[in-house]
Amino acid sequence: MDKIQITGGRKLEGEVSISGAKNAALPLIASSILIEGTCRFNNVPDLMDIKSIKLLLEDLGVTCHSEGRYLEVDGSHIHKIEAEYDLVRKMRASILVLGPLVARFGHAKVSLPGGCAIGARPVNMHLTGLEALGAKISIEHGFIEAKADRLIGNEIYFDTPTVTGTENLLMATVLAKGKSVLRNAAREPEVVCLANALIKMGAKIEGAGTAMIKIEGVDKLHPCDINIIPDRIETGTFMVAAAATGGNILVKDCIPENIGGVINKLKAAGAEMDIFEDSIRVKGKESIKSVDIKTLPYPGFPTDMQAQFMALMSIADGNCVIHESIFENRFMHANELLRMGADISISQGNYAMVKGVEKLQAAPVMASDLRASASLVIAGLIAQGTTVISRVYHMDRGYEFIEKKFAALGADIARIK
Ligand code: EPU
Questions:
Q1: Does residue 30 have its Cβ closer than 6 Å to ligand 1?
Q2: What is the reported pLDDT for 120?
Q3: Are strands 319-323 and 293-294 parallel, antiparallel or unpaired?
Q4: What is the per-residue pLDDT across 203-237, written as a single tens digit (0 to 9) for each?
Q5: Across the strands, what pairs with 226?
Q6: Do residues 287 and 50 make contact, with C-beta atoms less than 8 angstroms apart?
Q7: Active site residue 116
């Protein structure tokens, strides 16, 4: 299994270009199930999770053809409505095929995603939403089965905003008969990207990006070309790395307004920031101020940036509290940071007290999930000595060419096979 080796102490300098967003690409690729014909996606990142969704769709009979950043997906010949356990267990986002399958074919069977390193992550709201649209749902032998002659529009209220839940229900309601309203919907930019793509395909949607999305069902959608937005979490990860190393980098090809929560906290931590239309210059300072954070649904501080920010706070001047309010078990990286000399204590499961230390020390560490691995990379960049991170397959699920991008910014980083 690959490992990442980093010798810390270098300030990041130069420019980095941001790849297409994994969490926008996944629902978009799943949305091609809704369509007879070929959709063409541009700016598709080369990631394990993208390979996983392609494999899953191909197993259903979808044809996928990749060429560089382009991916053509043809849903004309789908012959199977069952998403197998072996494909779903690799990636929870596979649940995104449920809504489109039942909307187009009136029948879907998807392996129930199990628990996950960061929390239980139930899909109950995806299912009650589909039930509200008239689908009969049963769970047997580890599979969710949804059946409906044709989905009927309705009001759906989410107890708490759910990103993939909102996306699944958007894809279901666009082909449902009549009007639907999604209330307390997720407002993440990836939801807006999906809604815009569906509109381009002929769907009638208003209000994406707000907590209330109105949909008027149509009979059919048509294929089109779709651009995937830049990855806001990759953007934030490079910004935090620049601040942590006291570097000076230009993060290019991003959408600054999509990462406002992180910009705000980095400014409070003392980093200097110049915001341009599609790029951000981050200048780190010698001393980093401690700032409290609480993860929240968009536009709040993203849970997907909490681990990286904890690495930064571990060498800040002072103490802070990091409150993880989205997932119940998303502090696995804290124990690895402790092994590198950080001073972190966890209380009530989802509060981390971080007392800044002067220096981190290199150590062998292990990634436990995608964003935890990014946190350990940042810790390795600032630690004294050579850190070796194992289980980097987690990182390969969601960061494209990460070691190459950091090396181009001057980091001493390499992948060891
Ligand atoms: N929840 C329920 N019931 C549901 C759905 C969600 O209780 O039916 C809860 C979850 O357990 C969690 C909260 O609602 O406490 C929000 O979870 P959400 O459904 O929004 O998460 P998700 O859609 O499964 C997406 C991203 C995650 C990201 C979260 C939160 C994708 C493919 N995944 O997950 O990304 O952390 O939203 O922003 O879009 C990552 O990229 O590393 C990652 C984990």
A1: no
A2: 77
A3: parallel
A4: 999 999 999 999 999 999 999 999 999 999 999 99
A5: 41
A6: no
A7: yes
Q: How far apart are CA 281 and CA 262, in angstroms?
A: 14
With CA atoms as reference, report the closest residue to 315 among 391, 411, 258, 382: 382
Tens of pLDDT, residues 289-305: 999 999 999 999 999 99
Over range 309-313, report the average pLDDT.
98
Name the residue with tokens 């009549």. Answer: 178
Distance separating alpha carbons of residues 133 and 296, to the nearest angstrom: 28
Residue having the nearest C-alpha atom to atom 20 of ligand 1: 162
CA distances from 259 to 169, 170, 230, 264 (A): 25, 23, 11, 9
Task: Indicate the SS3 state at residue 219.
Answer: coil
Average per-residue pLDDT in the chain?
96
Of 411, 378, 362, residue with least CA distance to 244 = 378
Spatial CA neighbour of 339 closest among 308, 360, 355, 312: 360
Residue bearing the CA closest to ligand 1, atom 11: 121
Regarding the beta carbon of 205 and ligand 1, being less than 6 Å apart is answered: no
pLDDT at 349: 86
In the structure encoding, which two tokens stand for residue 340, read together? 């590198």
Residues 6 or more apart whose Cβ sits within 8 Å of residue 107: 81, 101, 145, 146, 147, 148
The contacts of residue 122 (CB under 8 Å, 6+ apart) are none
Give 102-143 pLDDT, tens digit per residue: 999 999 999 988 667 887 789 999 999 999 999 999 999 999
Would the CB of 341 count as within 6 Å of ligand 1?
A: no
Q: Cα 284 to chain center, whole Å?
A: 25
Under DSSP, is residue 338 helix (H, G, I), strand (E, B) or coil?
helix
Q: Is residue 23 helix, strand or coil? A: helix
Cα–Cα distance for residue pair 393/66, rounded to 1 Å:
22
